[in-house]
Amino acid sequence: MGGRDTCNQRSYGDLPAMSDLTILDRLAETLEARKSADPASSYVAKLLTGGQDKILKKIAEEAAETIMASKDGDMKHLVYEVADLWFHSLVLLAHHGLKPGDVLHELERREGVSGIEEKQSRKMER
Ligand SMILES: N=c1c2ncn([C@@H]3O[C@H](COP(=O)(O)OP(=O)(O)OP(=O)(O)O)[C@@H](O)[C@H]3O)c2ncn1[C@@H]1O[C@H](COP(=O)(O)O)[C@@H](O)[C@H]1O
């Protein structure tokens, strides 16, 4: 776990000040700008210049930390770790020139389609 200690700044369940879409878009813009930033002064620039494997390693670490937080049953810790996981996933998307909107559109496309039915239709296609 890093030095960022935002766990206690907002109690679990409070609404964020702005919509989730807005923070995702703002963060994506920052990540894009960090592509030309100095790695010495930007964590994101350091990750992006480090290449795909460094980003993937962080995602694996954050996924493992998310699992541990869930098992511990500490909801604040879980939210914190999922935020880390989402953040590093957004860095991976930026690395590939993708945006949060690409994922949101995919989720929208899936909206209302039962996972069980979708899996069944894939089996029938084979
Ligand atoms: N949302 C985040 C964010 N979430 C987590 N982190 C960093 O991700 C890292 C998480 O890794 P760990 O918990 O494993 O901590 P660590 O052991 O110190 O990390 P490593 O040194 O092993 O990589 C920490 O350094 C956190 O500070 C983030 N760093 C940046 N952002 C956003 O990205 C923007 C740009 O950041 P910079 O590029 O650093 O200016 C910021 O303004 C924020 O909006």
Automatic annotation (TrEMBL):
| Assigned EC number | 3.6.1.31
Subcellular location, record wording: Cytoplasm
Catalysed reaction per UniProt?
A: 1-(5-phospho-beta-D-ribosyl)-ATP + H2O = 1-(5-phospho-beta-D-ribosyl)-5'-AMP + diphosphate + H(+)
Could you tell me one molecular function GO term of this UniProt entry?
ATP binding
- Choose any GO biological process term that the UniProt entry carries and state it: L-histidine biosynthetic process
- InterPro entries (alphabetical): HisE, PRib-ATP_PPHydrolase-like
Gene Ontology annotations for the cellular component aspect, listed alphabetically = cytoplasm
The main location class comes to cytoplasm
Record has Acetylation as a keyword: no
Q: In which pathway does it act?
A: Amino-acid biosynthesis; L-histidine biosynthesis; L-histidine from 5-phospho-alpha-D-ribose 1-diphosphate: step 2/9
SUPFAM superfamilies annotated for this entry? all-alpha NTP pyrophosphatases
Coiled-coil residue spans: none
What domain of life does the UniProt record list for this protein's source?
Bacteria
Keyword Membrane among record annotations: no
Q: Which UniProt keywords apply?
A: Amino-acid biosynthesis, ATP-binding, Cytoplasm, Histidine biosynthesis, Hydrolase, Nucleotide-binding
Q: Which family does it belong to?
A: Belongs to the PRA-PH family.
Please give the name of this protein. Answer: Phosphoribosyl-ATP pyrophosphatase
Q: Which gene encodes it?
A: hisE
